[in-house]
Design brief:
The chain is 37% helix and 12% strand. It has 139 residues and is of the alpha/beta class. It has a 4-stranded parallel sheet with strand order 3-2-1-4.
């Protein structure tokens, strides 16, 4: 059985975004913490699939596709290319199609969908490594 990994930036009191969805709290200075960014990149290097919730997907894809397409001098450039090129499965009960490179929309139950991807990989005698980037919530 392969590992399903969780990577999420969260405040100590359990928040993943500010009151209006802003993500600027993640870095306390203008530049990201290099050691934390390296850890995130290392986790991504061990993964080949990103599981996302619908609400996070648009901003996630827009941001990393912009860096990959327009910012070759950015320190995030190689990571952005990795994020853009990696398979992304987006879970949504309301959307059938979501714009973004290498995005697949899954409208079924999350557990069943993940298991079907694992079974298909076993039948191909290949390995699927996972990177779980977004927690799912009913809120």
């Amino acid at each position: 059985m392969r590992k399903l990994k969780l990577q999420i930036q969260m405040t100590i009191d359990g928040f993943v975004a500010g009151p209006t969805g802003e993500l600027d709290w993640m870095w306390t200075s203008a530049q990201p913490d290099e050691s934390m960014f390296r850890k995130i990149a290392e986790l991504a290097e061990t993964s080949d699939t990103i599981l996302l919730g619908r609400k996070m997907t648009r901003e996630f894809c827009d941001y990393w596709e912009n860096v990959a397409d327009n910012q070759p001098d950015s320190p995030e450039y190689s990571f952005a290319q990795q994020m853009v090129n990696m398979r992304k499965i987006v879970f949504s009960r309301t959307q059938k199609e979501i714009k973004g490179r290498n995005v697949e929309v899954e409208n079924g139950e999350m557990v069943a969908a993940v298991k079907s991807v694992e079974i298909a990989a076993r039948q191909r005698h290949s390995c699927v490594r996972w990177c779980w980037l977004c927690a799912f919530t009913d809120q």
